[in-house]
Amino acid sequence: MKQSILNFAQDRKYFQISQLKALLTSRNISFAEDSIKKIVYYLKKEGKIFSAGRGWYSTIDHPFVLDKKPVQEIVDYLDKEFPLMYFSCWSTEQLKLFYHHIQVRFVIFIYSETDYHPSIYERLRHKYSSVYLNPGKRDVESAFIFDHKTVIIRPSISEEPQVNHYATIEKILVDLFIEGKKLQLLDEWEYQQVFQKIVDNYRVNMAKLIRYANRRNVKKEMLSIIH
Fold first, then answer.
1. CA dist 219 to 19, 38, 111, 178, 182, Å?
2. 140 and 217 fall within a common domain
3. Cβ within 8 Å of residue 34, ≥6 positions away
4. In a domain? residue 63
5. pLDDT tens for residues 85-101?
6. Residues 78 and 117: beta-carbon distance below 8 Å
7. Could you say which of 28, 51, 69, 117 has the lowest number of CB atoms within 10 Å?
8. Which of 14, 26, 13 is closest to 4 using CA atoms?
9. Residues 180, 173: Cα–Cα separation, whole Å
10. Residue 50 lies inside a defined structural domain of this protein
11. Is residue 212 domain-shared with residue 130, that is, in the same domain?
12. Rg, Å, the chain Cα set
């Protein structure tokens, strides 16, 4: 059974335990829950598979490391100006190496408590030439201008993956899927190129990504891209 599990894993970048059980069942291979857990444990210990979040595993060794520099200045500024405020931040510049086309204009997203929005907007519009407060598709079609660094302020999302105000790659990939359509930042093909270049070459926490996608009502769409 160990070889069957290993063969199954090696054919995939990511897989779920539920998929593994379905395979064994389809091949009439009897198994016990403890046996699968034990084999998976030893495969992880041998460095043949790696954790990709609860119930998810990957054959990719290297985890994705996010470049914080593009948003470090604005995170430090907001943290200083609003020390009690909850917020998370990311920029399309953090993904510039993964776009198919060269990007010269970038968008910084700030997700924060709505009570702070007017104050954030007033502070930032003196620092950046293009700052927008929760714009929609209609705004983009009318008087929306993308500058070298455009700032978008959005309401925070409960349980969004972030560490010390920096959005994780799992949050960014889900947000980019939504914002790409809403703000016409990139088409579906370009998004899939970015997504695949990241998840096929670097390990991400798939469980976290799917959980957040569910919070944002795009779980079905994200799963279709993954599979």
1. 18, 30, 20, 11, 17
2. yes
3. none
4. no
5. 999 999 999 999 998 87
6. no
7. 28
8. 26
9. 10
10. yes
11. yes
12. 20
Q: How confident is the model at residue 140 (pLDDT cuts 50, 70, 90)?
A: confident
Beta bridge pairs of residue 112: 87, 155
Structure tokens that stand for 147 in this block: 């500058």
Return the amino acid letter for 171: K
What residues are paired with 162 via a beta bridge?
Answer: 167
Query: What CA–CA distance (Å, rounded) separates 71 from 171?
Result: 15
Residue 176 confidence (pLDDT) above 80: yes
Top pLDDT among 217 and 29 is at 217
Q: What is the band of 102 on the pLDDT scale with cuts at 50, 70, 90?
A: confident
* Alpha-helical segments (H) within the chain: 2-10, 17-26, 33-45, 69-81, 117-124, 137-141, 169-182, 188-199, 206-215, 219-226
Integer CA distances (angstroms), 185 to 7, 177, 197, 208, in order: 39, 10, 18, 24
Same domain, yes or no: 76 and 149: yes
Q: Which two tokens stand for residue 6?
A: 């290993």
Total of domains in the chain: 2
Q: For residue 111, which of 212, 221, 27, 29 has the smallest C-alpha distance? A: 212
Task: Tell me the average pLDDT across 174-188.
Answer: 92
